[in-house]
Design a protein that fits this description.
Elements (H helix, E strand, L loop, with lengths): L9 H26 L32 H22 L3 H18 L1 H12 L6 H24 L15 H26 L8 H10 L4 H14 L26 H32 L4 H6 L1 H27 L27
Helix pairs in contact: 1-2, 1-5, 2-3, 3-5, 3-9, 4-5, 4-8, 5-9, 6-8, 6-11, 9-11
């Protein structure tokens, strides 16, 4: 039985639960359609190399649907439906933890870093797999919905103090690191490769990189990460807590806490996951002999970008935690709950006031 004093208002949890239910119903209906033989919205570009990216790489010719896009996704949806029901029936810390885990897994499955590169390239005219992009965007939306459910059914927080609350110094340092890492560790080498400078790679690898980084892909890959990194500054600046006065309608109003915490937290999880899994795959290839150390030395700059993603995710995660702590309940300037005042001292009746 849950403790009513530790849960959010039921109406908020119901709204988020209904939204999560709609997401799960839509995804499940699409998977049933694929299992029945339909292929609208389905892509096979991750398993075939037909070159028909805009057409789903021959998705219409796939006779047997793989497990995870079909029955596997339906099983996962059933588990997520149980989480939604748990959050409605017994809101509290345990249900909120389960919803946060669900939000994390959905976001990792979406791999939003792919969207960070592919959407600008698609808008610039490069042929793109719209089915894959749409599926990833839908999963990102699902991750946000489950994160909202987790917040709504979790422990009650104290009222948020009005106005701007400066973040701790350590939060600012991590934010600056999160801004610098994508610029120095990602954009700089990619710009050099586009310009033909063999920074950290051999001549043949440079030629392959230039072919992959042809316009507009190269521009998107080089420009989007540092621009996204600049958004991290909002977690340590006034405009991350209060809309600037020049913003129409919203000027001067407080920024909703979840509007900053949920996207930043999910992106941090995705970055750390991608960096960790990519490093593990590379280590496995080196151990099995599928990849040689000589290749790593010839392309050390490209290999180092894996560490850039990992460090970027850690820095963003710590910064997000500092922002969440600062903007939480209480009246302390840096997120700490002020100490309770002790009892008033007993005044000597014979002394003057």
């Amino acid at each position: 039985m849950s403790d009513p004093s530790t849960s959010q208002q039921p109406s908020a949890a119901i709204r988020w639960a209904v939204a999560c239910g709609i997401f799960l119903a839509a995804e499940s209906a699409l998977r049933v359609f694929w299992i029945a033989g339909g292929r609208w919205g389905y892509t096979a570009c991750d398993r075939t190399d037909s070159g028909d990216v805009a057409g789903g790489c021959g998705a219409d010719r796939v006779a047997v649907l793989p497990f995870w896009p079909g029955w596997g996704a339906l099983a996962a949806g059933a588990v997520l439906a149980v989480v939604v029901g748990w959050a409605l029936r017994s809101p509290g810390r345990a249900a909120a933890t389960a919803a946060w885990v669900a939000a994390t897994l959905i976001t990792v499955a979406a791999f939003p870093l792919h969207l960070l590169f592919e959407i600008p390239a698609a808008l610039a005219g490069r042929p793109s797999d719209w089915r894959d992009l749409g599926a990833r965007l839908a999963l990102v939306a699902g991750g946000v919905l489950f994160a909202g459910l987790a917040n709504a059914c979790g422990p009650r927080r104290g009222p948020r103090a009005p106005g701007y609350r400066p973040v701790p110094r350590w939060t600012r340092r991590w934010a600056y690191a999160a801004v610098a890492l994508p610029g120095i560790g990602w954009t700089l080498p990619h710009v050099l490769w586009v310009l033909g400078v063999p920074f950290g790679m051999s001549g043949q690898k440079l030629a392959d990189a230039q072919r992959d980084l042809a316009t507009p892909t190269g521009v998107a890959i080089a420009v989007v990460p540092p621009l996204a990194g600049l958004l991290v500054l909002g977690l340590v600046q006034r405009w991350g807590q209060q809309f600037p006065d020049w913003v129409p309608v919203l000027g001067g109003r407080p920024v909703p806490r979840l509007l900053a915490v949920i996207p930043a937290g999910l992106v941090a999880i995705a970055l750390v996951t991608y960096g960790t899994l990519s490093a593990a795959v590379l280590a496995g290839q080196l151990i099995s002999g599928a990849h040689e150390w000589a290749d790593v030395r010839e392309g050390w700059a490209a290999t180092a970008t894996l560490l850039v993603f990992l460090g970027w995710g850690v820095a963003l995660g710590v910064t997000t935690a500092g922002y969440a702590r600062t903007t939480g309940g209480g009246t302390g300037r840096t997120g700490e709950t002020p100490a309770r005042p002790g009892p008033s001292p007993v005044r000597n009746p014979g002394s003057r006031a």
